[in-house]
Please model this.
Amino acid sequence: MTNNLLKGKKGLIFGALNENSIAWKVAERAVAEGAEIVLTNTAASIRMGTISELAEKCSTIVIPADATNVEDLENLIDKTMEHFGGKFDFILHSVGMSPNVRKGLTYDNLNYEYLAKTLDISAISFHKVIQVARHKDALNEWGSIVALSYIAAQRTLYGYNDMADAKALLESIARSFGYIYGRERHVRINTVSQSPTPTTAGGGVLGFNDLMEFSESMSPLGNASAEDCADYILSLFSDYTRKVTMQNLYHDGGFSSMGMSRRAMRTYEKGLRFDDVKENQYPFGHKAE
Ligand SMILES: NC(=O)c1ccc[n+]([C@@H]2O[C@H](COP(=O)([O-])OP(=O)(O)OC[C@H]3O[C@@H](n4cnc5c(N)ncnc54)[C@H](O)[C@@H]3O)[C@@H](O)[C@H]2O)c1
Model:
Protein backbone atom coordinates (compact mmCIF):
# COMPACT_ATOMS: atom_id res chain seq x y z
CA MET A 1 0.00 0.00 0.00
CA THR A 2 1.52 3.33 -1.04
CA ASN A 3 -0.22 6.70 -1.14
CA ASN A 4 2.54 9.17 -2.03
CA LEU A 5 2.17 10.40 1.53
CA LEU A 6 5.65 11.97 1.53
CA LYS A 7 5.81 13.15 -2.06
CA GLY A 8 8.17 16.12 -2.32
CA LYS A 9 9.53 15.66 1.21
CA LYS A 10 13.19 15.18 2.08
CA GLY A 11 14.60 13.69 5.24
CA LEU A 12 17.63 12.50 7.16
CA ILE A 13 17.53 9.06 8.78
CA PHE A 14 19.85 7.99 11.62
CA GLY A 15 20.29 4.42 12.79
CA ALA A 16 19.87 1.85 10.00
CA LEU A 17 22.38 -0.86 10.91
CA ASN A 18 20.86 -3.85 9.13
CA GLU A 19 17.53 -4.96 7.71
CA ASN A 20 16.10 -5.57 11.19
CA SER A 21 16.65 -1.94 12.25
CA ILE A 22 13.56 0.18 12.73
CA ALA A 23 15.33 2.95 10.77
CA TRP A 24 15.81 0.56 7.83
CA LYS A 25 12.06 0.00 7.57
CA VAL A 26 11.39 3.72 7.88
CA ALA A 27 13.88 4.46 5.08
CA GLU A 28 12.33 1.88 2.74
CA ARG A 29 8.78 3.00 3.47
CA ALA A 30 9.61 6.72 3.25
CA VAL A 31 11.10 6.25 -0.21
CA ALA A 32 8.12 4.12 -1.28
CA GLU A 33 5.89 7.01 -0.18
CA GLY A 34 7.77 9.44 -2.42
CA ALA A 35 10.39 10.94 -0.06
CA GLU A 36 14.03 11.56 -0.83
CA ILE A 37 16.32 10.57 2.01
CA VAL A 38 19.91 10.70 3.24
CA LEU A 39 21.18 7.95 5.54
CA THR A 40 23.68 8.21 8.36
CA ASN A 41 25.35 6.02 10.95
CA THR A 42 28.71 5.76 12.70
CA ALA A 43 31.70 4.76 10.58
CA ALA A 44 31.96 1.50 12.57
CA SER A 45 28.29 0.62 12.05
CA ILE A 46 28.59 1.41 8.35
CA ARG A 47 31.48 -1.06 8.16
CA MET A 48 29.87 -3.73 10.32
CA GLY A 49 26.31 -3.47 9.06
CA THR A 50 24.66 -3.47 5.64
CA ILE A 51 23.56 0.15 5.27
CA SER A 52 25.23 0.48 1.85
CA GLU A 53 22.71 -2.08 0.48
CA LEU A 54 19.91 0.10 1.80
CA ALA A 55 21.48 3.20 0.23
CA GLU A 56 21.58 1.45 -3.12
CA LYS A 57 17.95 0.38 -2.81
CA CYS A 58 16.92 3.90 -1.87
CA SER A 59 19.19 5.55 -4.51
CA THR A 60 20.91 7.70 -1.94
CA ILE A 61 24.11 8.35 -0.04
CA VAL A 62 25.37 7.44 3.43
CA ILE A 63 27.17 10.14 5.41
CA PRO A 64 29.14 8.85 8.41
CA ALA A 65 28.56 10.66 11.71
CA ASP A 66 28.81 9.86 15.38
CA ALA A 67 25.62 11.38 16.77
CA THR A 68 27.45 12.38 19.98
CA ASN A 69 30.03 14.44 18.08
CA VAL A 70 28.90 17.98 17.24
CA GLU A 71 31.55 18.46 14.51
CA ASP A 72 30.37 15.30 12.81
CA LEU A 73 26.79 16.51 13.05
CA GLU A 74 27.68 19.91 11.56
CA ASN A 75 29.37 18.19 8.65
CA LEU A 76 26.40 15.82 8.30
CA ILE A 77 23.83 18.61 8.15
CA ASP A 78 25.97 20.63 5.68
CA LYS A 79 26.42 17.61 3.40
CA THR A 80 22.75 16.66 3.66
CA MET A 81 21.72 20.18 2.62
CA GLU A 82 24.24 20.06 -0.21
CA HIS A 83 22.77 16.74 -1.38
CA PHE A 84 19.21 18.05 -1.28
CA GLY A 85 20.15 21.48 -2.67
CA GLY A 86 18.69 23.23 0.38
CA LYS A 87 16.56 22.64 3.43
CA PHE A 88 14.77 19.41 4.23
CA ASP A 89 11.61 18.29 6.05
CA PHE A 90 12.18 15.50 8.53
CA ILE A 91 14.73 13.79 10.77
CA LEU A 92 14.52 10.33 12.32
CA HIS A 93 16.70 9.73 15.40
CA SER A 94 16.78 5.95 15.76
CA VAL A 95 19.90 5.71 17.89
CA GLY A 96 20.53 3.88 21.13
CA MET A 97 23.26 2.02 22.96
CA SER A 98 24.22 1.28 26.56
CA PRO A 99 27.73 0.05 27.37
CA ASN A 100 26.39 -1.09 30.78
CA VAL A 101 23.82 -3.32 29.04
CA ARG A 102 26.46 -4.55 26.63
CA LYS A 103 28.83 -5.48 29.45
CA GLY A 104 26.06 -7.11 31.50
CA LEU A 105 26.36 -4.65 34.41
CA THR A 106 23.09 -4.44 36.32
CA TYR A 107 21.36 -1.21 37.41
CA ASP A 108 22.63 -1.55 40.98
CA ASN A 109 26.20 -1.93 39.79
CA LEU A 110 26.56 0.66 37.02
CA ASN A 111 29.83 1.93 35.69
CA TYR A 112 29.37 5.71 35.67
CA GLU A 113 31.56 6.35 32.66
CA TYR A 114 29.39 3.91 30.78
CA LEU A 115 26.27 5.60 32.14
CA ALA A 116 27.51 8.93 30.78
CA LYS A 117 27.99 7.24 27.39
CA THR A 118 24.52 5.69 27.51
CA LEU A 119 22.98 9.10 28.14
CA ASP A 120 25.12 10.82 25.52
CA ILE A 121 24.46 8.27 22.76
CA SER A 122 20.82 7.48 23.51
CA ALA A 123 19.47 10.87 24.63
CA ILE A 124 21.80 13.89 24.52
CA SER A 125 22.66 13.09 20.89
CA PHE A 126 19.00 13.94 20.16
CA HIS A 127 19.55 17.41 21.62
CA LYS A 128 22.77 17.78 19.61
CA VAL A 129 21.08 16.78 16.35
CA ILE A 130 18.23 19.24 16.89
CA GLN A 131 20.52 22.05 18.05
CA VAL A 132 22.81 21.71 15.03
CA ALA A 133 19.85 21.49 12.62
CA ARG A 134 18.32 24.62 14.15
CA HIS A 135 21.57 26.61 14.16
CA LYS A 136 21.98 25.80 10.49
CA ASP A 137 18.29 26.49 9.82
CA ALA A 138 18.25 23.14 8.03
CA LEU A 139 14.56 22.31 8.30
CA ASN A 140 11.65 23.71 6.35
CA GLU A 141 8.72 25.28 8.22
CA TRP A 142 6.31 22.56 9.46
CA GLY A 143 9.13 20.04 9.48
CA SER A 144 9.02 16.99 11.73
CA ILE A 145 11.56 15.34 14.04
CA VAL A 146 10.97 11.91 15.59
CA ALA A 147 13.00 9.80 18.03
CA LEU A 148 12.36 6.25 19.23
CA SER A 149 11.56 5.62 22.88
CA TYR A 150 10.36 2.81 25.13
CA ILE A 151 7.85 2.59 27.99
CA ALA A 152 10.67 1.93 30.47
CA ALA A 153 10.84 5.75 30.59
CA GLN A 154 7.57 5.70 32.60
CA ARG A 155 7.49 2.27 34.19
CA THR A 156 10.15 0.00 35.57
CA LEU A 157 10.83 -3.02 33.40
CA TYR A 158 13.53 -5.20 34.84
CA GLY A 159 16.49 -5.59 32.52
CA TYR A 160 16.12 -2.30 30.63
CA ASN A 161 18.76 -0.88 32.94
CA ASP A 162 20.18 2.62 32.38
CA MET A 163 18.42 2.83 29.02
CA ALA A 164 15.28 3.64 31.05
CA ASP A 165 16.96 6.82 32.31
CA ALA A 166 18.16 7.65 28.80
CA LYS A 167 14.64 7.29 27.39
CA ALA A 168 13.20 9.54 30.12
CA LEU A 169 15.74 12.20 29.17
CA LEU A 170 15.08 11.69 25.45
CA GLU A 171 11.35 12.29 25.93
CA SER A 172 12.06 15.40 28.00
CA ILE A 173 14.30 16.80 25.26
CA ALA A 174 11.45 16.33 22.75
CA ARG A 175 9.21 18.49 24.95
CA SER A 176 11.79 21.18 25.80
CA PHE A 177 13.04 21.61 22.23
CA GLY A 178 9.57 21.04 20.80
CA TYR A 179 8.49 24.29 22.42
CA ILE A 180 11.39 26.31 21.03
CA TYR A 181 11.48 24.88 17.52
CA GLY A 182 7.69 24.83 17.27
CA ARG A 183 7.23 28.43 18.34
CA GLU A 184 9.93 29.70 16.00
CA ARG A 185 9.69 27.53 12.90
CA HIS A 186 6.61 25.31 13.36
CA VAL A 187 8.89 22.30 13.52
CA ARG A 188 7.31 19.51 15.56
CA ILE A 189 9.23 17.11 17.77
CA ASN A 190 7.83 13.84 19.09
CA THR A 191 8.98 10.50 20.44
CA VAL A 192 7.40 7.19 19.46
CA SER A 193 7.32 4.65 22.27
CA GLN A 194 7.59 1.36 20.43
CA SER A 195 6.87 -2.26 21.45
CA PRO A 196 9.87 -4.52 22.02
CA THR A 197 11.17 -5.32 18.54
CA PRO A 198 13.74 -7.95 17.52
CA THR A 199 16.69 -5.81 16.39
CA THR A 200 20.37 -5.68 17.33
CA ALA A 201 19.76 -3.00 20.02
CA GLY A 202 16.56 -4.66 21.30
CA GLY A 203 18.15 -8.11 21.51
CA GLY A 204 20.83 -6.72 23.86
CA VAL A 205 18.30 -6.18 26.66
CA LEU A 206 18.42 -8.80 29.42
CA GLY A 207 15.57 -11.33 29.03
CA PHE A 208 14.45 -9.76 25.75
CA ASN A 209 12.52 -12.80 24.47
CA ASP A 210 10.53 -13.06 27.69
CA LEU A 211 9.85 -9.33 27.56
CA MET A 212 8.53 -9.65 24.00
CA GLU A 213 6.38 -12.59 24.97
CA PHE A 214 5.00 -10.81 28.04
CA SER A 215 4.13 -7.64 26.14
CA GLU A 216 2.56 -9.69 23.34
CA SER A 217 0.33 -11.40 25.90
CA MET A 218 -0.62 -8.06 27.48
CA SER A 219 -1.36 -6.08 24.31
CA PRO A 220 -4.87 -6.39 22.81
CA LEU A 221 -3.46 -5.76 19.33
CA GLY A 222 -0.23 -7.68 19.93
CA ASN A 223 3.27 -6.20 19.70
CA ALA A 224 3.87 -3.64 16.97
CA SER A 225 6.51 -4.77 14.46
CA ALA A 226 9.28 -2.61 12.99
CA GLU A 227 7.19 -2.34 9.79
CA ASP A 228 4.16 -1.13 11.78
CA CYS A 229 6.42 1.38 13.50
CA ALA A 230 7.69 2.67 10.16
CA ASP A 231 4.12 3.26 8.97
CA TYR A 232 3.30 5.22 12.12
CA ILE A 233 6.45 7.32 11.79
CA LEU A 234 5.60 8.14 8.17
CA SER A 235 2.32 9.61 9.38
CA LEU A 236 4.33 11.85 11.72
CA PHE A 237 6.49 13.03 8.82
CA SER A 238 3.41 13.69 6.69
CA ASP A 239 1.25 16.82 6.57
CA TYR A 240 -1.56 14.97 8.37
CA THR A 241 0.02 15.50 11.79
CA ARG A 242 1.12 19.13 11.61
CA LYS A 243 -0.24 20.09 15.03
CA VAL A 244 1.13 17.09 16.92
CA THR A 245 4.18 18.08 18.91
CA MET A 246 6.01 17.58 22.24
CA GLN A 247 4.30 14.20 22.64
CA ASN A 248 5.45 10.76 23.59
CA LEU A 249 3.23 8.63 21.37
CA TYR A 250 2.71 5.00 22.32
CA HIS A 251 2.89 2.61 19.43
CA ASP A 252 2.55 -0.64 21.30
CA GLY A 253 -0.69 -2.47 20.49
CA GLY A 254 -2.32 -1.06 23.63
CA PHE A 255 0.29 -2.31 26.11
CA SER A 256 0.71 1.07 27.83
CA SER A 257 -2.96 1.20 28.89
CA MET A 258 -3.10 -2.35 30.25
CA GLY A 259 -2.83 -3.52 33.83
CA MET A 260 -3.47 -7.24 33.47
CA SER A 261 -4.88 -9.21 30.54
CA ARG A 262 -6.86 -12.41 30.78
CA ARG A 263 -4.26 -14.10 28.65
CA ALA A 264 -1.38 -13.07 30.90
CA MET A 265 -3.39 -13.96 34.02
CA ARG A 266 -4.06 -17.45 32.75
CA THR A 267 -0.42 -17.88 31.94
CA TYR A 268 0.57 -17.13 35.50
CA GLU A 269 -2.30 -19.05 37.08
CA LYS A 270 -1.39 -22.22 35.25
CA GLY A 271 2.33 -21.76 35.07
CA LEU A 272 1.95 -21.87 31.28
CA ARG A 273 3.64 -19.89 28.59
CA PHE A 274 1.13 -17.67 26.81
CA ASP A 275 1.39 -19.70 23.60
CA ASP A 276 -0.03 -22.67 25.53
CA VAL A 277 -3.28 -20.81 26.18
CA LYS A 278 -5.37 -22.19 23.34
CA GLU A 279 -7.59 -20.13 21.09
CA ASN A 280 -10.69 -22.24 21.91
CA GLN A 281 -10.54 -20.93 25.47
CA TYR A 282 -11.78 -17.57 24.19
CA PRO A 283 -15.54 -17.57 23.68
CA PHE A 284 -15.52 -14.60 21.31
CA GLY A 285 -12.63 -15.85 19.20
CA HIS A 286 -10.25 -13.11 20.34
CA LYS A 287 -6.71 -14.28 20.63
CA ALA A 288 -5.08 -11.34 22.39
CA GLU A 289 -6.85 -10.74 25.71
N1 LIG B 1 14.19 -2.83 19.47
C1 LIG B 1 13.37 -2.49 20.45
O1 LIG B 1 12.83 -3.33 21.18
C2 LIG B 1 13.08 -1.04 20.68
C3 LIG B 1 11.91 -0.67 21.39
C4 LIG B 1 11.67 0.68 21.64
C5 LIG B 1 12.58 1.63 21.18
N2 LIG B 1 13.71 1.23 20.49
C6 LIG B 1 14.66 2.25 20.04
O2 LIG B 1 14.70 2.27 18.65
C7 LIG B 1 15.93 2.88 18.24
C8 LIG B 1 16.55 2.05 17.12
O3 LIG B 1 16.97 0.81 17.60
P1 LIG B 1 16.71 -0.55 16.84
O4 LIG B 1 15.88 -1.38 17.75
O5 LIG B 1 16.28 -0.32 15.44
O6 LIG B 1 18.16 -1.24 16.89
P2 LIG B 1 19.45 -1.10 15.94
O7 LIG B 1 20.56 -1.74 16.69
O8 LIG B 1 19.14 -1.63 14.60
O9 LIG B 1 19.67 0.48 15.84
C9 LIG B 1 20.41 1.23 16.78
C10 LIG B 1 21.27 2.17 15.98
O10 LIG B 1 21.96 3.11 16.80
C11 LIG B 1 23.17 3.39 16.10
N3 LIG B 1 24.13 4.08 16.97
C12 LIG B 1 24.69 3.61 18.13
N4 LIG B 1 25.56 4.52 18.59
C13 LIG B 1 25.54 5.58 17.73
C14 LIG B 1 26.20 6.83 17.68
N5 LIG B 1 27.10 7.20 18.61
N6 LIG B 1 25.92 7.66 16.63
C15 LIG B 1 25.04 7.32 15.68
N7 LIG B 1 24.37 6.16 15.68
C16 LIG B 1 24.63 5.30 16.69
C17 LIG B 1 23.65 2.01 15.71
O11 LIG B 1 24.69 2.04 14.76
C18 LIG B 1 22.36 1.42 15.18
O12 LIG B 1 22.21 1.69 13.80
C19 LIG B 1 16.76 3.01 19.51
O13 LIG B 1 16.62 4.32 20.03
C20 LIG B 1 16.10 2.02 20.43
O14 LIG B 1 16.34 2.29 21.79
C21 LIG B 1 13.95 -0.07 20.22
The longest strand covers residues 139-149. The chain has a mean pLDDT of 93. The domain at 10-208+223-258 is CATH 3.40.50.720 (Rossmann fold). The chain is about 45% helix and 15% strand.
